[in-house]
Structure prediction request, 327 residues.
Amino acid sequence: MFIGNVEIKGYAALAPMAGVADRAMREICTQYGCAFTVGELTSAKGVALGDKKSALLLDVADSFRPFASQIFGCEPETMAQAAKRAWEYGPDFLDINMGCPAPKVAVSGGGGSALMKDPVLAQKIVEQVVKAVEIPVTVKMRTGWDNQMLTAVELAKRCEQAGAAAITVHGRTRSQMFADPVDYETIALVKQAVNIPVIANGNITDGKSAAFMYEQTGCDFIMVGRGAMGRPWVFEQINAWLGHNVLLPDPPLSKRLLTMVDQIERMVKYKGEKIAFSEARKHAAWYMKGFRNAAGLRRMCAQISCIEDVFEVCKAAQELNCEEHIG
Prediction:
């Protein structure tokens, strides 16, 4: 698949989850075979005003490509200004968020999934951003605002007319947030309505669910979000199933814990200990899924404040699940 002039190899990308898919997670997922990653959504106003926090979210690591930066907002001119600044950091392409359901973004801010209610404005935003940069521009959206306002097909057509190089559709409305079911039919209708690549997102957790998404929607590519939290090897499993019809099990406990430690150490490197260990609590808790006494281990994760605490979680997990110690 190509996004503009950018070749994408493989089968699945990592979704741009705010507060989750940071640089450390993106790097780990790439090592497990993720085809491309998208940075955390970044406020266009913050970028245009030179906010330091926004600048950090746009940082690009040359060793882990292809990579897209993502911006959100509801003012075409401000989005264009932000796009120019984001482009300076060197992403391979730029993504516009029209899917975030968070009230701060989609309700009070007027961006994210709120743009599903105003396809005309959304088209103007895409037009301005496309004019502002010389790299491909993509759009991530939902199926609509709610079941009475399923605007994905119209919005996708308008985005294509405005110059978008690809569309990602999360198969839920804004009102659904992350509740089931996933609307495969609307994703399929979007695919039939446009000539640019369509990337499907929603409830992809392994090779078989990835294959199901491809079969049900006819999409060109897929994107994994929550299915990768604490499970970056999901990309390896998807590649094995779709590429070789091989069903890979989860890695042994020891490798899972080593991967967790690697991710947390990267977080410390990029963010500093205070922020990293605070955020590591949720990541470590996700890694505990499926372990014996997972609830107790998650309680330990909630107390993480240093690397020694991380090793204590590993030790407890190994003792409870009969494996040798790490750390």
Notes: The mean pLDDT is 94. The two ends are 41 Å apart (CA to CA).
